[in-house]
Amino acid sequence: MFGDDLGELLGGRIPSDHSRPVLAEHYAGRVRARSVLDLGCGAGDSVDLFRSVVPDVHWVGADIASSAEVDSRTRTDAEFVTFDGRRLPFDDAAFELVFCKQALEHVEHPHEIVAEAARVLEPGGHLAGSTSMLEGFHSRSTFNWTPYGLTLVAEAAGLEVLELRPVIDGFTLVAWQALGLPNFFLRWWTRESPPYRVMELAGRAARLDVRTRNQIKLVLAGQFAFLARRT
Q: Does pTM surpass 0.90?
């Protein structure tokens, strides 16, 4: 079966509950943390999401001194800190959740920053977000991850990877960039993209189970979501 090598490596980290694409924001409602670090926060707009889930959440955004996203930040209603991209300026076990949406592909020291995310998590706390796999260069991106590569780095940092889910497929993502980032493509982050729909229908026709359909989508993912827990 297509992707069996990845499936064997990831085992139960590939979910079997459903095969729908999931955005990083999905984990805000699942984890419902009272203290959140948005690692690579950019403009800082995730604070609205987390406040909608837990109104009195302690939210902190951390990012490097300058990037296109950081430079666009205008809000002043939240706490922001600047760091060097390697060492987070927080005590050990400071947060229940480290949220990291589409930031890990931009870091220069991936092993160090994942280890730092683990350090600032409370025991039992979660690292959740999404990152790029089959995506072209964008906004100073440095590395593209695979679900297996992220698992290796996270587990070396003392995290248990609980699940890995598809976000959007690589075909749609590359086409979006090649066509100049047209706005009508944005719908495919909130609904099933045409290539993923074909994979889903073909998988159902072949009577593949949910986990196997997720496995196939992960192999061809442009971006994938992750949830890990500090052990």
A: yes
